[in-house]
């Protein structure tokens, strides 16, 4: 099948590459010329394990290409996937301007009937609204059917997720369009669930909101564990053994970040508000998360009284490991607050430094190694559970820091591991280890 993907971001690229890999002819269109030029020389604009290899393989085998021209991109299309961003506006609502923009170009360039598949996360009712826009502007002799097909991949494991997903959701305006999209996905061998367009849109928000709720819930339990002398690692394991609860998304930490949970939870509160529904539970989830992001600072303030003039090393800046994405990462608010409190901040991340330099405060000192970041530091904040950080030799903290004091926001080490070192270790939902000379 000839497929066009609009938006060569995370979702667009990974979808494009995976559809090419199963044998479709795919062209990815993006208005960002710089991205397209990089992709043409097999360079991925995002860091994602395995992605670059798959781009290069599929381009060389003739199934994948890139363009910034709609005319070229829609030329042979039977199916057009829209995977452009839907960021939050100031008021928390989803910004649909990129999708509206794409929709306004479709009928000008198509050469046959097409199915438009919306992969971007959009509020309930958006597919119908886009369908109206398409019909209104359709000056071609071809029909345009619409299908909602939300995406569930995670950054950092996107390739694995897309080939081994739990389900594919298809909400179509008619059976014919639904069958075409079902057929297109068949080689993935993933269960397909077909439903109405509005239910498909809601499944996406409900899924992200539920996962965010699970995280805020375990973080509240973790805060209680600290006060009551229980150990969150054991509590999460014990809870997770109940199959009705499940053992995933029970990692306590400094809250959720990234380009999706924060924006999608805010958008769902807005979507509910539009129909006079006060989504109290989700509002609390968001509040708990904001407070949780500040929890390391609260712990450090208690420990030192004042953070003024302390040198604090941040380890990990991305919102999770295996990605260079720092959109809505806890590192943004934490570093800003530390600077406000008068601390000097050094930072290290294995891959996100380039992105971080664009977004984080200019007064942060970025380093090329953990050792450089922690040298002569008064304390360390661990913000992302990168393998490199989890494997770091803790005796180097004792060797290089003024005082080896660690605030671990991602529970990278067990109490047993740290107990063997001359170190002071504060983590999430567990007793602190104070083992200084
Ligand atoms: N990042 C993720 O892990 C996931 C994201 N989603 C959803 O998928 C959508 C896309 O997200 P990302 O891939 O992260 O976005 P992104 O921001 O990484 O990429 C969007 C791309 O669209 C391009 N673009 C913007 N306007 C355009 C236009 N008019 N024509 C052509 N290209 C245009 C941008 O240049 C950019 O390259 C969002 O709705 C998001 O909520 C869903 C599941 C996972
Ligand atoms: O809609 C989206 O964009 C995507 O959002 C999330 O994926 P992603 O944001 O890439 O990453 P997650 O692994 O879900 O992590 C999100 C945040 O939650 C945090 N988290 C996750 C799990 C956990 O147990 N505890 C926890 O604090 C992570 O550190 C991270 O900051 C969902 O997991 C995907 O299914 C969805 O497609």
Automatic annotation (TrEMBL):
<dbReference type="Pfam" id="PF03720">
    <property type="entry name" value="UDPG_MGDP_dh_C"/>
</dbReference>
<feature type="binding site">
    <location>
        <position position="204"/>
    </location>
    <ligand>
        <name>substrate</name>
    </ligand>
</feature>
<protein>
    <recommendedName>
        <fullName>UDP-glucose 6-dehydrogenase</fullName>
        <ecNumber>1.1.1.22</ecNumber>
    </recommendedName>
</protein>
<dbReference type="GO" id="GO:0003979">
    <property type="term" value="F:UDP-glucose 6-dehydrogenase activity"/>
</dbReference>
<feature type="binding site">
    <location>
        <position position="320"/>
    </location>
    <ligand>
        <name>substrate</name>
    </ligand>
</feature>
<dbReference type="InterPro" id="IPR014027">
    <property type="entry name" value="UDP-Glc/GDP-Man_DH_C"/>
</dbReference>
<feature type="binding site">
    <location>
        <begin position="152"/>
        <end position="155"/>
    </location>
    <ligand>
        <name>substrate</name>
    </ligand>
</feature>
<feature type="binding site">
    <location>
        <position position="121"/>
    </location>
    <ligand>
        <name>NAD(+)</name>
    </ligand>
</feature>
<dbReference type="InterPro" id="IPR014026">
    <property type="entry name" value="UDP-Glc/GDP-Man_DH_dimer"/>
</dbReference>
<feature type="domain" description="UDP-glucose/GDP-mannose dehydrogenase C-terminal">
    <location>
        <begin position="313"/>
        <end position="415"/>
    </location>
</feature>
<feature type="binding site">
    <location>
        <position position="327"/>
    </location>
    <ligand>
        <name>NAD(+)</name>
    </ligand>
</feature>
<keyword id="KW-0520">NAD</keyword>
<comment type="pathway">
    <text>Nucleotide-sugar biosynthesis; UDP-alpha-D-glucuronate biosynthesis; UDP-alpha-D-glucuronate from UDP-alpha-D-glucose: step 1/1.</text>
</comment>
<dbReference type="InterPro" id="IPR017476">
    <property type="entry name" value="UDP-Glc/GDP-Man"/>
</dbReference>
<dbReference type="InterPro" id="IPR008927">
    <property type="entry name" value="6-PGluconate_DH-like_C_sf"/>
</dbReference>
<feature type="binding site">
    <location>
        <position position="155"/>
    </location>
    <ligand>
        <name>NAD(+)</name>
    </ligand>
</feature>
<dbReference type="GO" id="GO:0000271">
    <property type="term" value="P:polysaccharide biosynthetic process"/>
</dbReference>
<feature type="binding site">
    <location>
        <position position="257"/>
    </location>
    <ligand>
        <name>substrate</name>
    </ligand>
</feature>
<feature type="binding site">
    <location>
        <position position="35"/>
    </location>
    <ligand>
        <name>NAD(+)</name>
    </ligand>
</feature>
<dbReference type="InterPro" id="IPR028357">
    <property type="entry name" value="UDPglc_DH_bac"/>
</dbReference>
<keyword id="KW-0560">Oxidoreductase</keyword>
<dbReference type="InterPro" id="IPR036220">
    <property type="entry name" value="UDP-Glc/GDP-Man_DH_C_sf"/>
</dbReference>
<dbReference type="GO" id="GO:0006065">
    <property type="term" value="P:UDP-glucuronate biosynthetic process"/>
</dbReference>
<dbReference type="Pfam" id="PF03721">
    <property type="entry name" value="UDPG_MGDP_dh_N"/>
</dbReference>
<feature type="binding site">
    <location>
        <begin position="249"/>
        <end position="253"/>
    </location>
    <ligand>
        <name>substrate</name>
    </ligand>
</feature>
<feature type="active site" description="Nucleophile">
    <location>
        <position position="260"/>
    </location>
</feature>
<feature type="binding site">
    <location>
        <position position="30"/>
    </location>
    <ligand>
        <name>NAD(+)</name>
    </ligand>
</feature>
<dbReference type="InterPro" id="IPR036291">
    <property type="entry name" value="NAD(P)-bd_dom_sf"/>
</dbReference>
<dbReference type="Pfam" id="PF00984">
    <property type="entry name" value="UDPG_MGDP_dh"/>
</dbReference>
<dbReference type="GO" id="GO:0051287">
    <property type="term" value="F:NAD binding"/>
</dbReference>
<feature type="binding site">
    <location>
        <position position="86"/>
    </location>
    <ligand>
        <name>NAD(+)</name>
    </ligand>
</feature>
<feature type="binding site">
    <location>
        <position position="263"/>
    </location>
    <ligand>
        <name>NAD(+)</name>
    </ligand>
</feature>
<comment type="similarity">
    <text>Belongs to the UDP-glucose/GDP-mannose dehydrogenase family.</text>
</comment>
<dbReference type="InterPro" id="IPR001732">
    <property type="entry name" value="UDP-Glc/GDP-Man_DH_N"/>
</dbReference>
């Amino acid at each position: 099948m000839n497929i066009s993907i609009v938006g060569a971001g995370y979702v667009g690229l990974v979808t494009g590459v995976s559809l090419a890999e199963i044998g479709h002819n795919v062209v990815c269109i993006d208005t960002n010329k710089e991205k397209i030029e990089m992709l043409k020389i097999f360079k991925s604009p995002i860091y994602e394990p395995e992605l670059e290899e798959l781009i290069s393989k599929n381009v060389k085998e003739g199934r994948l290409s890139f363009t910034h021209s709609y005319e070229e991109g829609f030329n042979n299309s039977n199916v057009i996937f829209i995977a452009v961003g839907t960021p939050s506006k100031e008021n928390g609502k989803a910004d649909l301007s990129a999708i509206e923009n794409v929709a306004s170009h479709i009928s000008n360039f198509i050469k046959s009937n097409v199915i438009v598949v919306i992969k971007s996360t959009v509020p309930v009712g958006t597919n119908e609204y886009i369908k109206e826009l398409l019909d209104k502007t359709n000056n071609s002799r071809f029909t345009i059917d619409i299908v909602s097909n939300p995406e569930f991949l995670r950054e950092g494991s996107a390739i694995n997720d897309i080939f081994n997903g739990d389900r594919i959701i298809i909400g179509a305006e008619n059976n014919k369009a639904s069958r075409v999209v079902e057929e297109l996905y068949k080689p993935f061998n993933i269960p397909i669930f077909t439903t109405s367009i509005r239910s498909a849109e809601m499944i996406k928000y409900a899924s992200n909101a539920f996962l965010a709720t699970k995280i805020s819930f375990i973080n509240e339990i973790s805060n209680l564990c600290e006060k009551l002398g229980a150990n969150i690692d054991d509590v999460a394991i014990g809870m997770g053994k109940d199959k009705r609860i499940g053992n995933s998304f029970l990692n306590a930490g400094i809250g959720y970040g990234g380009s999706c949970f924060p924006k999608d939870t805010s958008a769902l509160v807005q979507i509910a508000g539009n129909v006079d529904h006060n989504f109290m539970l989700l509002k609390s989830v968001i509040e708990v998360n904001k407070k949780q992001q500040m929890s390391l600072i609260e712990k450090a303030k208690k420990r030192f009284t004042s953070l003024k003039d302390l040198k604090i090393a941040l380890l990990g800046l991305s919102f999770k490991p295996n990605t260079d994405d720092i959109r809505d990462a806890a590192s943004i608010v934490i570093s800003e607050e530390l600077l406000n409190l008068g601390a000097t901040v050094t930072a290290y991340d294995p891959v996100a430094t380039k992105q971080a330099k664009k977004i984080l405060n200019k007064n942060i000192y970025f380093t090329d190694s953990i050792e450089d970041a922690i040298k002569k530091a008064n304390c360390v904040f661990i913000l992302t559970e990168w393998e490199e950080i989890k494997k770091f030799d803790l005796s180097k903290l004792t060797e290089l820091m003024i005082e080896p004091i660690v605030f671990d926001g991602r529970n990278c080490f067990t109490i047993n591991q740290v107990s063997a070192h001359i170190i002071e270790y504060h983590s999430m939902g567990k007793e602190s280890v104070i083992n200084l000379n």
